[in-house]
Write a structure and sequence with these properties.
It is a single chain. The chain is mainly alpha-helical and about 110 residues long. The longest helix is centred in the middle third of the chain and has 14 residues.
């Protein structure tokens, strides 16, 4: 959008067979985008885009990443500590969080 005017952008979007590929190619090659931006005649611009699009090719990547492994640990990370939840509820009612802090400190020292 920085290099091409609105008419040129519309020609790419509505005139190319694969506009996403053309936009990607122009985004990767700023020099080529600036060259095309100098063509002010819409018909010549359309032909230049068609020529460029004919030269573009897509290659598939075969480097598929390995599936993510699940971590195994002694304690389950998603487990809910019912004592901690009970203390938090009690502290929310009373406004005194000292028991919650003491319980958390106790858990830290156990680790």
């Amino acid at each position: 959008t920085d290099n091409l005017n609105e008419i040129q952008q519309n020609i790419i979007l509505y005139g190319s067979e694969n506009p996403a590929l053309v936009v990607y190619a122009l985004g990767k090659n700023d020099k080529r985008a600036k060259e095309l931006a100098t063509i002010k005649d819409p018909i010549q611009f359309a032909f230049a885009i068609a020529k460029m699009e004919a030269q573009l090719k897509v290659t598939k990547r075969n480097d598929i990443p390995a599936p993510e492994r699940k971590l195994k640990s002694g304690s389950s990370a998603g487990a809910v500590d019912s004592t901690l939840e009970r203390l938090r509820e009690e502290a929310a009612k009373t406004g005194d969080f000292t028991k919650v802090r003491q319980y958390k400190q106790k858990l830290k020292t156990k680790r």
